[in-house]
Write the structure tokens for this entry.
Amino acid sequence: MEPKLVLDRHQFDTFFESLHKHGYEIIGPTLLDGAVVYAPVDSPDELPVGWTDEQQGGVYRLKRRGDQALFGYSAAAHSWKKFLFLPTLKLFEAYRTSGGPEIRHPQPDVRRRAFLGVRACEIASMEIQDRILIHGTFQDTAYVQARNAALIVAVQCLQSGGTCFCRSMNTGPEVTRGYDLLLTEITGPQKHVFIVDVGTDRGAGILEGIALAKADEADLKHAGDLVDEAAAHMGRVLDQNGIKELLYRNYEHPRWEEVAKRCLTCTNCTIVCPTCFCTTIEDVTDLPGGKAERWRRWDSCFTLDHSYLHGGCVRCSGLSRYRQWMTHKLATWIDQFGTSGCVGCGRCITWCPVGIDITEETAAIRSSGDASSSIFGKKGE
Amino acid sequence: MKTDIGTAGPGRQTEPTLDDPILPRMFQVRRIFSETADSFSCELQPSDGEVMHFSPGQFNMLYVFGVGEIPISISGNPDKPKLLVHTIRSVGPASKAIRRLKRGDLIGVRGPYGTGWPVKGAEGNDVVIVAGGIGLAPLRPLIYRVLAEREKYGRVALLVGARTPGDILFQRQLERWRGRLDIDVLVTVDKAPRSWRGNVGVVTSLIPKIRFDPATTTAFVCGPEVMMRFTAMELEVRGVPTSNLHFSLERNMKCGIGLCGHCQLGPYFICKDGPVLGLDKIKKLMALREI
């Protein structure tokens, strides 16, 4: 095993310089509109130094920490999805020529990006999207390119948020794989350091030329304790036991009607979800009609258009759309791709304007037994 | 082309390739002609000369310059793949734009996609083919195939339902097939003028009129979902095994290759797990509303 290293907080500028020198644009956490978001950052000063957040159903507030931690918040507002699986993407251009339409592939975006501050649940969500967009019969070429060009600088999640349940989904909080470099932040009155694990040669290359100390036993134990503590303070729980069968049995459970009364079908949950992958297509033409473009953009199963079929939509009611989303995320996804579609990041709970909670809805269906068996006169409901 | 994720090293970006599955191939329109008042067929030939082989029941994504792309099943003869044939109902902007194309115009094609009719699995069995309206189009390649290898099957029946006699698809072809002694062809319409001498009623009303041995029958069904549901019930009641009933389903599709998420029906993606699915897989789902 590689010896673990220590990067001092004072060396973070050098770390940024090295990333730049290797040609990476750094995408990291920063404050924008009262939230931690992932965006291009040029220096460590732009990180959310000393900030954390409070998250509950429909609630997000920034708060001051008692220290100067760089990564002391929980899940950021958006996931990394927006940099790998672009919200809008030009698929091709077509030109009207005398010989008929001619199709041109757009130049791919091959910018190298370093993702700074990737959490365990977010690595898990990338692996879930990999299964769909890379490892299926057909590949999403743009995703493959963006994914290959991304350097993953993960951080151990030392503060689980109020809506987090990664422990239930077995995706965190500890980062164990899928990174080029992994940082564990230790803040104290005397020191502020990052324990560094090197995951790949590419990651090791970034550290070349930075004088790093070797981590001592005390530091490593401290780092381990911090991760355990985060695991112990998970805000929510989702019982995954037999969840596929549970939801398959309960397509007609009365709880769906209940949640539909609250759901605004606003699509927020699908936009902040790090695994949701539905897209739709827009064709655009210029006014003379000589040039056409095909664009792909994120879509949501909460829109009526999503299920539109000549003359009407299949899922017209809010009930059927919420049911589609949750059943897909937690149950049919398992049949489709071999894993759950949920990583337990809690974003859908935090950013739901009315605070609908996927863990609460699942628990409600589980606790009230299942509708199909009650139809046959099961007692004790 | 598969690309490994996780192996380190800069410069491991993949170059864009022309086999990007989202890019259409260009085909030239050979002929476009009306089938009924609101449907037409188009015959296409690949601009690059590379013939598209397909299995009966598969579909293509057809792209019209600047208008859009739609999933359309292939309605031609799988044993004569030089000509790619689609039969389309003009209902939306893209289908109407295809109708307006002229001989020599180019159209984008991606495919063929999806599962086909499990025609091999029906060998040795009686075959019942049930079509409603435009649903006859994705069944025609299957009919061609079954008739081409007629000796491999027992009794073969084709039941066709349409709204009116004028809406009957492939009418001349149906008349030719009805003239054959080795296939039963029955047609019914929902409503008819007095000149109509055939059946009136839903397509399921034709099932009692044909002879087949239910235990060794394979059925292939395509039409409106309500028609497929009742056909399934009728054939099951008569003892056709659930696993021998096959349906071609339709859902909103944007990509055709399992990436856009639109065509889901429970755990299935209609574009890649379908469009042809066995009743054993979809029976429960078909009983649910808004699924």
User: Anything to note?
Assistant: Chain A touches chain B through 70 residues (CB under 8 Å). The longest helix of chain A spans residues 318-337. Confidence is low (pLDDT under 50) at residues 373-381 of chain A. The two ends of chain A are 55 Å apart (CA to CA).
